């Protein structure tokens, strides 16, 4: 015990309380929001995240564009273990891209383009065809991810299971990555027609999930937009009842990632009487241990409210 081991123990306790809670009138479970940054999908933690989605342990997900595309790219090609110290110029000459100590070949992104652009074209055709009906189709980031999860049809994919289990995946910065590049490339193929993606409909959707929750819990790995998007949705219900943050950032620079849960209390994003903890640790090290002590202990009893 002591130091960050105590924080890990607190995270286990808080998550198990999220899982155990039931509304006495309706029996509804805690609505669990899971957020994570793209590097965690690039890493081996992807398999842990997929486990949570496959077994319906979470209610909604927020991630970045990289957190979406890297999942599909891993279904299309291999990611390799490299070194943090490998010079960028030598990797560039070999057509390799470094993510920390992981390496992704350029060919993987070519395979991604070959796979996703025809799907985007089909989505555009469906959008245009729907204009002839009384219910025109509005694509949103969550609907795009839902469709791609269906199309990948691969049980290794996080978003295949999100599609199969109807767990919404929100990505307010969907264009900030290779998927954004593909959307850009597609505009030249589809001109003058353009695929339209409505972010306002998605903000309404995630906020409504939070507002309607009988009890809300947040599990957030990393910081930035994924952390704030979940926290801000919970502002709409006067704060979450429980929160677990896992990242290595410090608060001295005023960054979102560095902020402790108590800062969110001041904004009304976490309730004043909430159960919360920040674990100062690298998520690929500690989150599998936390999942082993929580969700993996009794999978049949731990489905989140969806």
Q: List low-confidence stretches.
A: none
Strand order, largest beta sheet: 6-2-1-7-8-9
For the record, the CATH class of the domain at 3-77 and 154-176 and 200-301 is: Alpha Beta
Roughly what percent helix?
40-55%
SS elements, strand count: 9
Question: What gap, in angstroms, lies between the N and C termini?
Answer: 35 Å
Q: Which range does the strand content fall in?
A: 15-25%
CATH topology of the domain at 3-77 and 154-176 and 200-301: Deoxyhypusine Synthase
Order of helices and strands, N to C? HEHHEHEHEEHHHEHHEHEHEH
* Radius of gyration, whole Å: 20 Å
Instruction: Give the full name of the CATH homologous superfamily of the domain at 3-77 and 154-176 and 200-301.
Output: Deoxyhypusine synthase
Number of helices: 13
Global outline: globular
CATH architecture of the domain at 3-77 and 154-176 and 200-301: 3-Layer(aba) Sandwich
Give the rounded overall mean pLDDT. Answer: 96
Biggest sheet: strands, sense, closure?
Answer: 6 strands, parallel
Family: Belongs to the deoxyhypusine synthase family.
GO molecular function: deoxyhypusine synthase activity
Cofactor: NAD(+)
Pathway: Protein modification; eIF5A hypusination
Report what the structure shows.
The protein has 306 residues and is of the alpha/beta class. It contains 13 helices and nine strands. β7, α11 and β8 (240-247) form a beta-alpha-beta unit. 41% of the residues are buried.
Short structural summary:
By secondary structure, this protein is of the alpha/beta class.
């Amino acid at each position: 015990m002591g130091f960050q081991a105590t924080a890990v123990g607190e995270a286990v306790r808080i998550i198990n309380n999220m899982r155990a809670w039931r509304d006495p009138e309706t029996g509804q479970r805690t609505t669990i929001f899971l957020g994570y940054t793209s590097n965690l999908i690039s890493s081996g933690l992807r398999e842990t995240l997929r486990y949570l989605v496959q077994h319906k342990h979470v209610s909604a997900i927020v991630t970045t564009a990289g957190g979406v595309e890297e999942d599909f790219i891993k279904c299309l090609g291999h990611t390799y273990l490299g070194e943090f110290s490998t010079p960028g110029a030598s990797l560039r000459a070999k057509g390799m891209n470094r993510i920390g100590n992981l390496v992704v070949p350029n060919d993987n992104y070519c395979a991604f383009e070959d796979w996703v652009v025809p799907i985007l074209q089909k989505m555009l055709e469906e959008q245009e065809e729907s204009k002839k009906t009384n219910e025109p189709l509005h694509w949103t980031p969550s609907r795009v991810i839902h469709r791609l999860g269906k199309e990948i049809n691969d049980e290794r994919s996080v978003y295949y299971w999100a599609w199969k289990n109807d767990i919404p995946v929100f990505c307010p910065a969907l264009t900030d990555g290779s998927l954004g590049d593909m959307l850009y490339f597609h505009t030249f193929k589809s001109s003058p027609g353009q695929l339209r993606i409505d972010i306002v409909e998605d903000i309404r959707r995630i906020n409504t999930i939070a507002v309607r929750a009988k009890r809300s819990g947040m599990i957030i790995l990393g910081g930035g937009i994924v952390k704030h998007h979940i926290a801000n949705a919970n502002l709409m219900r006067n704060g979450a009842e429980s929160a677990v943050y896992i990242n290595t950032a410090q608060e001295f620079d005023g960054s979102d990632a560095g902020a402790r849960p108590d800062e969110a209390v001041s904004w009304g994003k976490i309730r004043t009487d909430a159960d919360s903890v920040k674990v100062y640790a690298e998520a690929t090290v500690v989150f599998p241990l936390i999942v082993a002590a929580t969700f993996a202990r009794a999978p049949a009893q731990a489905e989140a409210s969806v």
